[in-house]
Amino acid sequence: MPDPRFAEIEGHRPYLMRYALAQLRDAQLAEEAVQEALVAALESLASFGGKSTLRTWLTSILRFKVIDLQRRAISDRAHLEPTDFSDEAGDDSWLDDLFAPDGHWRTPLQTWSNPEAAFEQRRFWEVFERCLDKLPPAGGRVFFKREVLGEETDVICKAESITPSNCWVILHRARLGLRECLEKNWFGKDGGGG
């Protein structure tokens, strides 16, 4: 007789699919990651001790499957040229628009009333994904690998053929770009969240 928790595990599939899709931005890869995570969960169900929620446990398994898929994609990808993360014209003047001469933000940070709730909302992830897509390609990749997948800087630098200092500049600029985009499209007055 199948374990009664099978139906409960299967009930988390939509959430896991959204999570994987937000990470991988490819429906087929997301489905593959979710399928692998569910199979792994079923195979190791006896080891689930209930120290966390079932969703947390499943998400943890899925996170490792996503990382595995990302690593496979990185190793399969051709060598990438280093980037200076400037815009298409090589102009960094957009950074000047964000800061006052004294170094403070021109526009104060909006109060993000409940970031945890926003994190779980599908709409937030849709906006986040659009914001991530607006970043220069290298910025989006480096940010995703470091902040979402939790990869170490030296691994990212090797995969992207960049120096550690360039990596930190890319991450800093990606964070600035994401902050600005999320404030305009999610946390701002006309946004859908917080």
Mind explaining what this structure looks like?
The protein has 194 residues and is mostly helical. It folds into 2 domains: 5-76, Orthogonal Bundle (Rna Polymerase Sigma Factor, Chain: A), CATH 1.10.1740; 93-187, Arc Repressor Mutant, subunit A (Orthogonal Bundle). Helix content is 65%, strand content 0%. It contains 10 helices and no strands. The longest helix has 24 residues, at 164-187. The protein is globular, with a radius of gyration of 19 Å.
- Report the C-alpha radius of gyration, rounded: 19 Å
Q: What is the total tally of β strands?
A: 0
User: SSE order, as H and E?
Assistant: HHHHHHHHHH
Task: State the helical fraction.
Answer: 55-70%
CATH architectural grouping of the largest domain:
Orthogonal Bundle
Give unreliable regions as ranges. Answer: 78-85
What is the percentage of strand-forming residues? Answer: under 5%
By DSSP (H or I, 4+ residues per run), the number of helices equals 10
Helix and strand content put the structural class at mainly alpha
Family: Belongs to the sigma-70 factor family. ECF subfamily.
GO molecular function: DNA binding; sigma factor activity
InterPro entries: RNA_pol_sigma-24-rel, RNA_pol_sigma-70-like, RNA_pol_sigma-70_dom, RNA_pol_sigma70_r2, RNA_pol_sigma_r2, RNA_pol_sigma_r3/r4-like
Organism: Usitatibacter rugosus
